[in-house]
Amino acid sequence: MNYEELREYCLGMKGVTECLPFDEFSLVLKVQGKMFALLPLDNPETQIALKCDPERAIALREEFSAIVPAYHFNKKHWNSVKVDPQIPKDFMCELIRHSYDLVVAGLPKKLKEELKNMP
């Protein structure tokens, strides 16, 4: 996946919006106002920072060299994923969906209901 494919995939999920800028270097993707992904704007390598449960984050880092702790977040809960032939597109989409689902699970009941009722 390239940068635009990553962005479009994320924006295609229910309730996702983008915010410019997180800082001058990053595009933030949020669901119901809570960040679940961060795309760097200034990096020539395509990568995405995603939320991840800590145990899964460690296992993924051990399995794939293209997955490393995200430098700007709690390293137990965020991974930076470099788009790499080692990581198939379907798996990349699964990682994005996992981050999205973690954030949705932590939303207050009212925001979950609003999300559920969106077209």
Short description:
It is built from four helices and six strands.
Which terms summarize this structure?
single chain, 119 residues, alpha+beta, Aspartate Aminotransferase, domain 1, 4 helices, 6 strands, 37% helix, globular
Polypeptide structure, described:
The protein has one domain: Aspartate Aminotransferase, domain 1 (Alpha-Beta Complex), CATH 3.90.1150. Helices cover 37% and strands 29% of the residues. It has four helices and six strands, in the order αββββαββαα. It has helices at residues 3-11, 54-63, 89-105, 109-116; strands at residues 16-23, 26-31, 34-40, 47-51, 67-69, 78-82. A hairpin with a 2-residue loop joins strand 1 and strand 2 (26-31).
Structural domain count: 1
Gross geometry: globular
Order of helices and strands: HEEEEHEEHH
End-to-end gap? 26 Å
DSSP summary: helix tally: 4
**CATH-defined fold name:** Aspartate Aminotransferase, domain 1
* Beta-strand share of residues: 25-35%
Low-confidence stretches: none
Helices and strands in order:
Blueprint: H1 3-11, E1 16-23, E2 26-31, E3 34-40, E4 47-51, H2 54-63, E5 67-69, E6 78-82, H3 89-105, H4 109-116
Antiparallel strand pairs: 1-2, 2-3, 3-4, 4-6, 5-6
